[in-house]
Amino acid sequence: MAEPGVETRTRRAVITARATASFEPVGRSVAAARAFVRDTLQGWGHPELVDDAVVLTSELVTNAVIHAGTSAEVLCLRSDDSVRVEVADRYPEREIPVQSGHSLGSPDRENGRGLLLCAALAHRWGVDYSPTRKHVWFHLDLPQRPVGTRSAGPVLPDALLPVAETRVRVAVAQIDRGGTITAWNEDAEELFGYGSDLVIGKPLGDLAAWPHTPGIGTGLAEALRLSRWEGSYGIRCADGRVIPVYASHLRVRDTQGEPSTVCLLVREHERAVLQTPQRPVAEPGSESRAADPFEVFIGSPAPDDLDGLLQRTVERARDMLDGDAAFLLLATDDETELEVRATTGLPAARQRFARVPVETGASRYGSARMPAVHEDLAAVPGAVPLLEGTGMRSVVTVPLKVEGRLTGSLGVAAESANRYSNEEALRLQFAADRIALAVESARLGELERLRRGSLSFLVEASDLLAGTLDRDQTLALMAQMTVPTLATWCAVYTIADQASDPYLSYVLHEDEDRIDGLKALLSSIAPPDPVPTPGARVWSAPGDAAHRAALTASVRALDHPASPLSSGIDTTLATASAVAGETVVLPLVARNRVIGMLTLGRPSEDHFRQEILELAEDLSRRAALALDNARLYSERVAISQSLQRSLLPPGLPVIPGVEVDVIYRAAGEGNEVGGDFYDVFPIRDDVYGFAIGDVCGTGPEAAAVTGLARHALRLLAREGFGGPAVLERLNAAILDEGARSRFLTLLYGEMRPQPDGSAILKVVCAGHPLPLRLRPDGTVEPAAEPQPLLGVMEDLELYEQTVTLDPGDVLLCVTDGVTERREGTRMLGDDGLAEVLKTCTGLTAGAVASRVLRAVERFAQAPASDDMAILAMRLREPDHN
């Protein structure tokens, strides 16, 4: 029931505007009443109240004209702080579904739902009775609109214009090019309290409370320079108040030819006095044109809000023809297909971005280019593919055309047959003609944003893909770039060679909890065929498998409702739901070979947009090349590492009384072979050979010399040749390689352990860094003298030097990657290495090698640019226990 105190206050409120309309007891009156309230509130400048008011009016008018079966009268009243809407009918039944505790009953009841909505949405509501009629009313409070809020409403006939309380005053101020006030009329003095002598000569900015709206860069100075500007801001009055005003600025030239701006200002709620008409006003005497959505078809959507514009269009079209559903399709760039972009009243199965052909094919949209009325779709099945299976019987469709080009199609459908005639088609066509240019402009703006975004996306994708040569990382990047930007989930299949089947290599879903279930589902079905045809093709197997899995899970859930398996059933259903939408496959083609497939999926309520598929195709080409490069690089690395391992000894021999340890570090990422090498091997009983060398350069040529050197050393040494003879023959073999030969630095020696714990060394150092001997007392000295390197001169006269190592002595052999370690102009060198070795007294051979490596790594911050080999041999000291 009404609250008497509240109603009394409401009646004392000052009514500033009113509008009324009557509606006959027919079904289409509900849509007409919705449109009447919507247009009235928009005309009064209150679009923020439209949604709630239209919902409430729709329910109350439905109760009157449908359930009560009487005519209804709708009255809209605007006061200073609220809007009141009354719906009156001639069925004064006093039974109101109000129960104890102020409950309004169950929402499932057929009647009383309008009052439920009033209680939920309205700030105040109530019911008034008279002997002949019943009034149900509700109040919606006006929001506090901040200064600077700009809103646009449709042009209204005179009967719906707001009623001014007093004489409308229009303040006129003239502003020169510097922003200074040069003229100020009497209405301005009355409105703002300033005499002309107080404001002339002052900047308008001193009085204007200009709004700083985020995203709007126009300031007061810019607005004054524009040829025409309209909008709201505030003026600071003499008493300190800020009055919201609506202003119209017009740029003119004064009598001296100087540019200035004439500002017309009224109180904000009287904006209709100045607001520029956007559409022609209905001619006087036309029948109820103001209440027709056809007259104010789309309101004032943002110029770049295409989806909002299309959705508002279909809703207004449905209301205008009192339909049960409406839809709008936009033509593709080649105008061969129409794409679903907005619907209302249709089931979710009518997926967005679904496409139907215009001219050819079994499901062609035959009525796209001309207005058409289908009185009964049952008689012409397939005429409108979008409506198949929706229960719609009659439909009217009209084209959207700009400069003779088909840009889209607008349709309104009803569940009953024979609902529409040519008259409705003409009305809808006229409305479509008025909206077509705005739709096309917004569509072109959207396409431009998509193209710019696509270019940015592809540039970033190319950079990321070019930044790695790791196969697994490339697969992960492919998936992460597509989800969720292009698709809800994706899967990447790879093909090792022409004889191999596609293999599921990577799966990603925007919901991480569904990745495992999705992977299991895809693993249970055959992979897509590796077809090299470019472009995306639909793959139905995941959707079919998801449907079967959902049916099976549902049956199990019914058979075992309290089973511990219920959580697994829920997971299966969730996964099936995630895969039940559209799935497309794009081939990954590189170097004229299909190396895999990129699979993309969307949820069931959406189709892939053509622009998204084209972007995905561009990405797939880049990803395929990156994946193939990663494959080739991985193969090259594997070959290089295998070859590198073959050039190094498989293990180290056990030498009695001698600790031996080796550290080998290859520079780079393992993509080069050759370079440094080492070897320790038995020659004969109690005699062991050791070598460490460095071939000039890297790559296959260096690897060939490395292999030649290591194997020749073992062979010649075991044949009984001494050190000089071994190196001289190796030098000849290198020179025999001709142009492929490389010079080689080599330290070669033979070690013979002695019964007293010492060892006799015979050493030849051919151009290699000298071996260093560390004594237990910390003394460091070279253990050989330098001699010519190999692979340069034919006649070499090499000699060997004999050195006796005592127990506790350490022999350190390194390649030049250690001694030539640099940091700027500094180099570690032989002296730096000797200083490091002096700190290694008492350490094992392994500890010595490790300490040298750490010293080399810490010497410079940059990664090593040369291979390093460190060979340490230490004679054990006798155990005195």
TrEMBL record:
This is Regulatory protein. Residues 175-202 form the PAS domain. Residues 657-875 form the PPM-type phosphatase domain. Coiled coil: none annotated. The lineage of its organism: Bacteria, Bacillati, Actinomycetota, Actinomycetes, Kitasatosporales. GO terms for molecular function: phosphatase activity. Keywords: Hydrolase. InterPro entries: Bact_Sigma-Reg, GAF, GAF-like_dom_sf, HATPase_C_sf, HATPase_dom, PAS, PAS-like_dom_sf, PAS_4.
